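Hi all, posting the design record for the shared folder.

TITLE: backbone redesign
STEP: 1 of 1
STRUCTURE INPUT:
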């Protein structure tokens, strides 16, 4: 119960932040605004894009718009690589911040029973949640933070994070480079590709193990 309450409360805080400040941030970081902010960094434009994606962990910056802006600035391949790297950096930041709280504090927050249940849940099925959440609003931060809190195995988290971040990063960079709005099939791809990659990663892991 505490684990569920933690997740709902965390998602609620993120949603509330979007409701209060999201409109202003979306206006500031429209596609044109994001491109301007990235280009303003000159030769460090790629780092500015990564920084904006990482900042999305704490402030309501529209991450997919930033990814599209990176595609517009750098093209679909370099832009996709930077966008995927930025999405992974954001996930690692959220995971790391909550993991740094330590197991003692995590157990106080969740209670011993829910902590163990959460650790078992993320050790077994957490990869699916991490991979599939990367294309959705609110959930990426909440899932990554919870994974860190219950100390999901780091290697498994990184593998799942890559399965979700890479296709999403390249997809939205390609959309931005083409100068198009997000088509309906993009959501299907951004959910389907991470799922396929995670299945493949699991089979490779079992063969190597």
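Okay, here is what came back for every position:
SEQUENCE:
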């Amino acid at each position: 119960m505490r684990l569920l309450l933690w997740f709902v409360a965390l998602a609620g805080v993120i949603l509330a932040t979007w409701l209060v400040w999201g409109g202003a941030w979306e206006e500031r970081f429209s596609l044109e605004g994001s491109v301007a902010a990235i280009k303003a960094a000159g030769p460090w434009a790629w780092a500015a894009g990564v920084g904006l994606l990482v900042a999305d962990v704490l402030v309501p910056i529209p991450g997919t718009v930033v990814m599209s802006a990176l595609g517009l600035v750098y093209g679909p391949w370099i832009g996709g690589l930077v966008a995927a790297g930025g999405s992974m950096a954001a996930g690692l930041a959220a995971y790391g911040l909550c993991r740094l709280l330590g197991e003692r504090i995590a157990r106080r927050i969740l209670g011993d029973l829910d902590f163990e249940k959460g650790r078992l849940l993320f050790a077994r099925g957490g990869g699916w949640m991490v991979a599939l959440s990367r294309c959705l609003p609110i959930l990426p931060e909440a899932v990554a933070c919870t994974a860190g809190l219950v100390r999901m195995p780091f290697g498994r988290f990184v593998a799942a994070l890559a399965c979700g971040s890479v296709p999403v990063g390249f997809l939205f960079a390609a959309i931005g480079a083409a100068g198009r709005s997000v088509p309906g099939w993009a959501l299907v791809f951004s959910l389907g590709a991470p799922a396929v990659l995670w299945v493949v990663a699991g089979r490779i892991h079992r063969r190597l193990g």
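COMMENT: Residues 2-208 form one domain.
Let me know if anyone wants the other runs.
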